[in-house]
């Protein structure tokens, strides 16, 4: 059970559109074209650097009455998590609370496929009731194919409220020809952005405050080809010169030389301390005064940098140089990309690599101290010092785990050379944690073994508790409860409280390992105390109660599990935790399926499948299985088959290696339920079952058990002998793991295997064992799934007076209860049993009301009952009122007397 992820930390500066500079040239004809494009889903503004794309769009949005949002992209956004987080955050700046479904998917344990995200995003945007503009600036920085796919899908199914604007130096890899042919896009390109002669003259006059001669204007236009950045550089370099015409004539002919030439002129006109600051800060993709103070150290070997960060920023704002404010408070700035590129080139020509590395390292240190680790890692890697980068990841690896953002840790590790990762224990541990969250458990032991073989005892001892924890989790899935519990308990004692990311999961694994080890009741008592002592109703409280639910399910206590799940659902709903809510849907579906409440089970499984990407640990695929089996049990084979097809598609797209063989096992079981033994046998003969080992929890589908179902269904001497042997092994395994639901399934299959071999006494012994095991939880469906042969055997137990009331409920579910001959019906005495008497009432008591009635019989007060079954005393009071009303009573004593008289309670209950 996974927590709701916290929001991805975003740089708010990337969501601010650039301020329009005071001396920009108003270009009405381009603004009109932008306005005309509003009826189309896409506007593409495509031209090389320095042609004024961002300025034009900022000017347009400033004058527009339509709500608008802005995202400045960079190379770090080549990650679907991060890109979509910025996209959503930009939309939510305009419409708070919008796109909640997509945001929930973004925070899923595993990121759903691109098409799922795209369709969710399209639906979410389509529900916004106001048109808006979203600008993705510098889209050329994106190379990730999944991001391109997302935007392509968004444009192909364009939601009406969105007008998307892309600013890029190159055309994005979209089907632009198709969009043009369909009239779905507008375009502004380099030919449109070039300044004409008239615009060049007007622009120059604005910059220098006086008219420029026509010959000079024409020559500048010719040499710069209407390139606004070249014009601005030229004017900055000519600002303090009287020989303007002479200099213009001497400009290089090609743009690539003009920029270097003019930058040299611009810098030569600046004081030396300004030049030092410009070159020192050229390495920074964004900067503020404190960062400048850290990077630009006075009296360094290569630069003077005497003026300080704040005076430098004030000078920049007044200088008309290529600097762009990134927020409304004047704290963060960046250079125009082209200007930064030119400064970097000049920096590399002036100082050696070691001095440049020192600048990067000082920047990295500042970002790390301010908990901006992504940027700190970027600057450290720029120095080429991979050891320092590795150390930075090691020092901060718990932060993303604590925030349930393992994918951030994965991104950090991917930036390091693999040979470095393999040499460092903490990085191998970090990789193991990523694999754990990806549920690739088999890949973890080799990493832990590699850690043990590395030199350096001290580093391994530092991480010993995490090694024990990961080993314990692996052993848990292998079904080794006692050993897992030992390692997990030892790890929990030693892991610092601050490392909540690794502690959180450990508590659930420890609890369930306790059940597997035969200490379920003790563990429940311990976790109940922790639950009641936890003052804040948050994640930890949900986890504690979730642990108790898992134990109840494994021990077959379905009523207790159901009540606790309801409580968790209420807590999750109040907390807005969609992930836990979906888990409760799966768990409620599981319980109601076992009770044969098929429509209720279908409802819960449908919701779980609809939100399957929020589930982990095989609950996603088991939700599909539950929905398929529910449809089939309701005799809706078409829907079962349709859902089966969707499950196979989901499994094929999944990165989980066991998902597809699991889905095929569900298919084989469905074939059996539909009478297609031939297909099921073909599956049996072509399947490698090595993927299905370890603990089986409370999953509805277990491939190794379905394997036995097919063997039993074959009814050959060989297949029945093989089934008998395998079922014996599986029963021993699950008895050792104290796993009631799987023991029940196995016992019923053993019953069928014996019955088909004419071993009636043995079959009845297995069946009586199964009934005894199933009765406390009220299991119905496992019996009904096996058909009339089990029904026939159950009548024998009825005739022996075994669990008459409970077997009567099972027989009723066969829908053949009334059709049995008189000889096969229960005796008249059995018709006086509590279940039958209860259903003779006009309004029968519910399972919960029957449970509370039994507590009333024991003399428990409302508060005591509430503590027992995890509900409030007020809820208990409502249930007792319902009991009194249905039994036509006015108080507890009258209700008990009436229940005894009707046979709902017996004096030996």
Question: How would you describe the overall organization of this protein?
Answer:
- 64% of the residues lie in helices and 4% in strands.
- The longest helix is centred in the C-terminal third of the chain and has 20 residues, at 717-736.
- The two termini are 36 Å apart.
- It has 909 residues and is mainly α.
- Strands 2-3-4-1-5 form a 5-stranded parallel beta sheet, with helices on both faces.
Explain briefly what this protein structure is.
With 909 residues, the protein is mainly alpha-helical.
Quaternary organisation = single chain
* Secondary structure: number of strands: 7
N- and C-termini, Cα separation = 36 Å
Quickly give the structural class.
mainly alpha
Number of helices: 50
Helix content: 55-70%
Task: Write down the Rg.
Answer: 35 Å
What can be said about the biggest beta sheet?
Answer: 5 strands, parallel
Nearest-integer average pLDDT: 87
Low-confidence regions: 2-7, 816-836
Shape: elongated
Strand order of the largest sheet: 2-3-4-1-5
Q: What proportion strand?
A: under 5%
């Amino acid at each position: 059970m996974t927590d709701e992820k916290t929001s991805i930390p975003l740089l708010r500066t990337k969501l601010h559109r650039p301020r329009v500079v005071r001396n920009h040239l108003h270009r009405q004809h381009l603004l009109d074209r932008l306005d005309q494009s509003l009826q189309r889903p896409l506007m593409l503004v495509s031209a090389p650097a320095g042609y004024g794309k961002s300025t034009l769009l900022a000017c347009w949005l400033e004058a527009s009455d339509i709500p608008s949002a802005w995202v400045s992209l960079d190379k770090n956004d080549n990650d679907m998590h991060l890109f979509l987080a910025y996209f959503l955050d930009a939309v939510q700046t305009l419409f708070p609370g919008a796109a909640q479904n997509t945001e929930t998917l973004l925070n899923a344990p595993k990121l759903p496929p691109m098409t799922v995200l795209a369709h969710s995003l399209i639906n979410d945007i389509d529900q916004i009731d106001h048109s808006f503009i979203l600008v993705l600036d510098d889209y050329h920085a994106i190379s990730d194919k999944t991001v391109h796919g997302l935007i392509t899908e968004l444009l192909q199914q364009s939601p009406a409220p969105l007008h998307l604007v892309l600013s890029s130096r190159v055309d994005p890899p979209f089907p632009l020809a198709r969009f043009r042919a369909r009239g779905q896009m507008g375009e502004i390109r380099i030919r449109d952005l070039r300044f004409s002669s008239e615009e060049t003259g007007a622009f120059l006059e604005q910059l220098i405050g006086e008219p420029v001669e026509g010959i000079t204007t024409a020559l500048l236009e010719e040499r710069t080809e209407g390139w606004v950045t070249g014009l601005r550089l030229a004017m900055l370099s000519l600002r303090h010169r009287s020989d303007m015409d002479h200099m213009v004539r001497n400009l290089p002919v090609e743009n690539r030389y003009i920029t270097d030439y003019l930058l040299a002129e611009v810098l030569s006109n600046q004081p030396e301390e300004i030049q030092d600051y410009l070159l020192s800060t050229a390495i920074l993709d964004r900067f503020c005064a404190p960062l400048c103070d850290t990077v630009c150290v006075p009296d360094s070997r290569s630069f003077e940098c005497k003026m300080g960060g704040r005076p430098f920023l004030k000078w920049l704002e007044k200088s008309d140089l290529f600097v762009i404010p990134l927020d409304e408070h004047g704290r963060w700035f960046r250079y125009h990309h082209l200007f930064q590129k030119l400064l970097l080139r000049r920096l590399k020509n002036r100082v050696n690599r070691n001095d440049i590395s020192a600048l990067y390292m000082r920047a990295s240190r500042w970002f790390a101290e301010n908990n901006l680790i992504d940027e700190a890692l970027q600057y450290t890697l720029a120095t080429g010092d991979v050891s320092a980068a590795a150390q930075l990841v090691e020092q901060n690896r718990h932060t993303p785990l604590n925030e349930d953002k393992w994918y951030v840790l994965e991104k950090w590790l991917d930036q390091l050379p693999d040979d470095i990762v393999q040499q460092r224990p903490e990085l191998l541990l970090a990789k193991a944690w990523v694999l754990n969250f990806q549920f690739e458990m088999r890949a973890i032991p080799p990493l832990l073994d590699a850690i043990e073989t590395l030199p350096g005892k001290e580093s391994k001892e530092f991480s010993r508790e995490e090694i024990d924890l990961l080993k314990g989790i692996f052993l848990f899935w292998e079904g080794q409860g006692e050993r897992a519990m030992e390692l997990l308990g030892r790890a929990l004692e030693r892991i610092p409280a601050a490392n909540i990311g690794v502690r959180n999961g450990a508590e659930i694994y420890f609890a369930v390992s306790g059940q597997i080890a035969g200490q379920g009741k003790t563990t429940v008592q311990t976790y109940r105390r922790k639950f009641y002592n936890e003052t804040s109703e948050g994640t930890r409280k949900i986890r504690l109660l979730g642990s108790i639910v898992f134990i109840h399910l494994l021990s077959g206590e379905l009523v207790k599990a159901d009540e606790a799940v309801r409580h968790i659902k209420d807590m999750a709903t109040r907390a807005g935790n969609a992930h836990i809510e979906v888990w409760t849907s799966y768990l409620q579906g599981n319980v109601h399926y076992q009770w044969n409440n098929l429509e209720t089970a279908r409802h819960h499984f449908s919701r779980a499948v609809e939100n399957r990407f929020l589930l982990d640990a095989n609950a996603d695929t088991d939700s599909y299985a539950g929905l398929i089996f529910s449809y089939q049990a309701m005799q809706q084979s078409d829907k079962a088959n349709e859902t089966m097809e969707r499950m196979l598609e989901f499994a094929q797209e999944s990165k989980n290696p066991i998902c597809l063989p699991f889905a095929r096992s569900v298919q084989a079981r469905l074939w059996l339920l539909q009478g297609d033994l031939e297909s099921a046998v073909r599956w049996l003969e072509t399947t490698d079952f090595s993927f299905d080992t370890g603990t089986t929890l409370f999953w509805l589908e277990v491939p190794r058990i379905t394997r036995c179902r097919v063997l039993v269904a074959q009814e050959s001497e060989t297949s029945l002998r093989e089934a008998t042997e395998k079922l014996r092994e599986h029963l021993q395994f699950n008895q050792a793991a104290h796993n009631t639901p799987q023991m029940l399934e196995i016992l019923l299959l053993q019953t069928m295997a014996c019955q088909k071999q004419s071993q009636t006494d043995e079959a009845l012994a297995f069946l009586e064992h199964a009934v005894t095991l199933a009765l406390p939880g009220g299991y119905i469906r496992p019996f009904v799934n096996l058909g009339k042969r089990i029904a026939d055997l159950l009548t024998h137990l009825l005739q022996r007076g075994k669990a008459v009331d409970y077997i009567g409920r099972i027989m009723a579910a066969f829908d053949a209860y009334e059709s049995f001959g008189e000889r096969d019906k229960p005796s008249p005495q059995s018709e006086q049993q509590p279940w039958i008497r209860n259903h003779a009432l006009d309004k029968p008591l519910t399972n919960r009301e029957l449970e509370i009635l039994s507590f009333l019989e024991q003399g428990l007060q409302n508060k005591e009952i509430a503590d027992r079954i995890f509900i409030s005393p007020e809820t208990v009071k409502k249930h007792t009122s319902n009991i009194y009303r249905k039994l036509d009573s006015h108080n507890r004593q009258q209700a008990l007397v009436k229940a005894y008289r009707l046979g709902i309670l017996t004096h030996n209950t």
